Amino acid sequence: MAVADTGAEPTVIADDVNIIYKVIAGQGGKGTAATAFRRILKRQDRPSIREVHAVKGVSFTAYKGDAIGVIGRNGSGKSTLLRAVAGLLPPASGAIYTGGRPSLLGVNAAMMNDLTGDRNVVLGCLAMGMSPAEIEQRYDEIVEFSGIGEFIDLPMSTYSSGMAARLKFAIASAKAHDILLVDEALATGDAEFRIRSEKKIHELREQAGTVFLVSHSLDVVLDTCNRAIWLDKGVLRLDGPVEEVVEAYNQSATGATTKV
Amino acid sequence: MSTAAEQTGTSDPAAMAERHGLSKSSLRPPLGSYTRELWSRRQFIVSYARARTYALYAGARLGSLWQILTPILNAAVYYLAFGVLLGTKNGIDNYVAFLLSGIFVFTYTQRSMTEGSRSLALNLSLIRTLHFPRATLPLAYVLNELTQMLVSMGLLLVIVGLTDGISPRWLLVIPALFLQTMFNVGVTLIFARVGTFVSDVSQLLPFVTRTWLYASGIFFSLPAKLTQADAPGWVIHVLSLNPISAYIDIVRRALLDEHVKNQLPHAWAISIAWSFIALVAGFVYFWRAEDRYGRG
Question: Where is this region: Disordered (chain B) (predicted)?
Fold first, then answer.
């Protein structure tokens, strides 16, 4: 497939990407030692392993300064696509090219739950390659942005999911990323945090970065993104200006199941 | 950045990616830059190891006092079982020091391996959140065990100092530990990779290490045992190829006054060889799967 070269500098190019992964789907049999033994004797493969073809032939090109909302129903391959862009899930065929290292920010991703928020900030920053001096300099800013307040001294296991998501977003956005992938991270925050993080995404775009945002909240997508990609059962349905795509998606959604 | 392809206006994605300096997202870095990246994260390794120790003892009333208590209690149990009850002492002057040096050296490698085999699986969420060289995690686990080993060694030096007196020969413990650490890093990296993709390994490892424990001459002197059993001469040469036996032996050479009669042949040479083989092989083996650890 040919890509139009418009002169704008691309940051992510997805070329006919197919992603297939293996999942352990439910329990085959009773899951006892006896059934496992019988399975080995009969030389069967593990019964519950199933292949999921999550993303099918998706191609797109993202440019500097783009904020792309990825929308679609549950299980349509949005998060999988983001993981592949981040380089965590190699495509079965096709290729994804990126400039620099994309950072994935997801709601399910926990850091170290036994440790306090404050230690997680330091560890997260060190893992991203910041120097101790740099961390000291940015520390207050990160904590303030997260809005965690005095809870920063408590272990992360005591945080609500919203608080954890806020802290993770604050840590990940402390570093200037060329490509930031946000997976539903903003959904759990409260209204005030959402406004702040939307501002942060705008900032990142202005620093000539590229932001991908997976969200079920179409309002958030409309507010923060200039472009949207609609995935339907792993296939790219539509790629274009955010208003158009959201409009089309809304129409199809009201046709099937109503979605807010 | 202008190349011939630019003139065509449209081009295939691969060429366009190359022209703009983009690279495949799931590509693992070349070995050289991976090593450099790893070095730049040394602060992370130290902090992570420290955080782990903290989390480990945070719930315990005695806190990190357990770092000292654990080796003492371990030593006491083994001394009771092998020194007193089974009477394996025979012919070894300072049996306590002989036994403890064996147990501490063995435990260092054993714990690095078993803990390290889960180092990636337990941190999958961290791996899926941030980009960093994955080898930092198993390295941090080895660092944890090294800290524990240094505490244990301090304890052992106190015991030997009280029983045999201080000797300049002790300085040889430093290169011995250094070599063993190189070996441990290597095997831990290997088991970290294997353990991530085949989680059965974590179940199996305890049995492997226990067998290893009994074969390594920790409770008894290997040469003495073999003479007693009338074994042919080549057996000792085969047994002394065991890396653990070699590392134990070089520590014992450094600490024990009368180890000459019990020592294994070529222990230093064998130790050095194993250290380099394990480190290089382990590092390359681990790096070759670098792009796949996130899949779990």
Answer: 1-28
